[in-house]
Amino acid sequence: MTDMQLFAPLAGWAVPLAAVPDPVFAEGMMGQGMAIDPTGDTLHAPCDAIVLTVHAAGHAITLAVSEGVSMLMHIGIDTVAMGGAGFTPLVQPGDRVTAGSPLIRFDLDRIVRGAAAAITPVLVLDHDGVTVTERCGEGPVSVGDPLMRVRFDGVGAKVTPSTTDTAAGEIVRQDVVVQLPHGLHARPAARIVATVRGHDVRVDFRRGDAVVSAASAVALLSLGLAHGAKVTIEATGPDAAAAIAAIEPLLISEANTQVPAVAPRAVAAPVELAEGAIGGVTAAPGLAVGTGWWLRPALPDVPAHGEGVAIERTRLATGIDAVARTLAEAAATPGQMGGVLKAHQAILDDPTLIDRAVQAIDAGAAAASAILTAAVEQGAQLRASGNARIAERADDIHDVALRVVHAILGTEAAPLDVPAGAIVLAHDLLPSQLAALAGQKVGGFAVVGGGPTSHVAILAAGMGVPMLVALGEPLDAVADGTMLVIDADGGALHVDPDADRLDRAQATIASRAAAEAAARAAGDRPTVMADGTAVSVYANLGSIADARAAADAGAEGCGLLRTEFLFLDRATAPTEAEQAADYGGVAAALAGKPVVIRLLDVGGDKPAPYLDIAAEENPALGVRGIRVALAQPQILETQLRAILSVADVEHCRIMVPMVASVDEMIAVRTVLDRLRGELGIGPVQLGAMVETPAAAITADLLAAHVDFLSVGSNDLTQYVLAMDRGNPALAAGIDGLHPAVLRLIQSACRGAATRGVPVSVCGGLAADPLAVPILLGLGVRTLSVPPARVPATKALVAALSLAQATAQAEAAVAVDSAGAVRALARRFAEELAR
């Protein structure tokens, strides 16, 4: 038996293969190994070897590292589509290389921008008699650091057990022209090998005089089959015809070899940036000036190898129990943090996560290492889902796993001591880290990765602290102590700003602070514009604690109570009594102010398993919102009864989500009126959310059947622009200030006005200070925002006149892009500040 040490071929962050967002690699179809998320720009030889193949696109290389043992290194995911741009091979097939020899130079920035991911699998290809052992732990590696060891004895390419039996017999042949746009590369090769192993057959590929076994991915790649190349498939055995029929499509279309799309990081909107600014995605609005402070949490020293299965299983169980108790206590915290921690409880209860950790322990891992590995694997699956909201939950899984690691090792996360007013810079930010910072006077958050719908984004918005995410690698160049202006309203981080920008930012901050202080001092007195026009500023709520915070902030009511929080992350639907208690608690906290309760809004990206909503190819256009309630009338009736049982029901209003037709409103009102009659309850206002273009354009028709309309700008934007707001690859274009969205809001206001029906906005636009003047000018008279944004919104409204707002709205709907609207709005904001 031979043992060989393989060294890291790249500088970067080493992770288990399961973390690669591509099942071909993550599930071991190509072989065993590790992966590295690179920080360098050159791929090196991991040992002495002979170069077997270099892909024509320059992104992948195979090496013979010993007789019968070969390796594949594949720089990035889906990099074949880059067509060689950014890759410079430094060797060619047949070259002998020594450990550390440079093999391929690449442009990392170009890969990050142009490919699904930069993470690089380093694989020992699938052979009998080969075992990868002693993998390094997750963490930073430099070129030449020990990465893993390989043991092998009597090796040869792995083939199906029946190969010998099927070698004889009639040969079935099929000539195929390769139509894959990028030729035969790693993914289709892996699919072909898997197909061969799934049949009782021997398959060879013949090109000219070269004949190779289709049971070997390296052999297939060695043929260099480019787009348009001709190849003959030869199969022998009982399944010969079936195998060829299954293999041929894999050479024809990439669609047949594709895996679930990788969820890329959110992309910053294409705004016009000042020199020295970095563009990002707004997660929480606001403006702040401060020095940068990098969050570099020290990870505990996690042992890789266990001290025995029984010992490590006990350690894992003890650690989980300790964290479960901590989370149970902390989840009782009122407000959004309590809700996040309840979600973390559900993660800790997930049997899949625990089973994976136990399997790692049974394979020899230490308990702490096992739970981290399990979290990486599960997080990789979420990131590969193609859905931004689902992918963002990978950070929550990692957060929970780190809690368990600390519990197992008896350590604690190091305290975070941030200078007052600093802008916290981070690669990623976990909910527990943000919770640790909540009591400190943080100026803002700027994050390399992340997304606008993550838990930390929600928490930052609740804190009233500006936050930008998806700033990308340019943020890495910002040093600790650098002066920064974080303009989360404009989606930009200004690095080392000049004196003029700094003065203007500080003046705006001071002006806003004074106005907000005045708004707070005015309490919940009605908001009026500078010319006396009445405008109501309500709050969006998800809990009783939110309602108390909104009341303290001076909110004049609740414009959106998200009742789905009661329904999610549980095995059964909440009872009528549970719902009534929650709705009643919110109404009591707001003491006689209006409370708009949205009926259950699930489906799409908010699943509730006990509602038995079938999986859909396009859930955003499927059974969601009021369609769920009408399809399951017991859910609708229970919720309406709970609302009608609230002691202060005369101040409650009921809002119907995802309305697309008058018939839906008539159906809900029919049920509501019947229940009111049964319970002896007087009239209760019923309204519709304007989230579909259909609702916006037929607002005049809906107005005959509703008491109010409320624009859900987030969903309205995705449906108007035909862009899934859960797809971060489209984040640059999903902007509620697009003229098409504004024109539909204008249409809704005009249609509602024909019957004197008021229109509010409860979506994200209402909290955007650049959007507020435009919305008021379009005819909106109620804005509903997060509690922390109530004083700022009231102050902004008080500084505006209706004439100014109307002029802004008219100008906004006349320009041709969201970027032009935002530029217009920024100029107006600067003039207003002066």
From TrEMBL:
Its EC number is 2.7.3.9. Residues 22-126 form the PTS EIIA type-1 domain. PANTHER family: PHOSPHOENOLPYRUVATE-PROTEIN PHOSPHOTRANSFERASE. Keywords: Cytoplasm, Kinase, Magnesium, Metal-binding, Phosphotransferase system, Sugar transport, Transferase, Transport. The keyword Plastid does not apply. It is found in: Cytoplasm. Its main location: cytoplasm. It holds the Pfam family PTS_EIIA_1. It catalyses: L-histidyl-[protein] + phosphoenolpyruvate = N(pros)-phospho-L-histidyl-[protein] + pyruvate. Belongs to the PEP-utilizing enzyme family. Its cofactor is Mg(2+). The keyword Signal does not apply. It comes from Sphingomonas mollis. This is phosphoenolpyruvate--protein phosphotransferase. Coiled coil: none annotated. One of its GO terms (molecular function) is phosphoenolpyruvate-protein phosphotransferase activity.
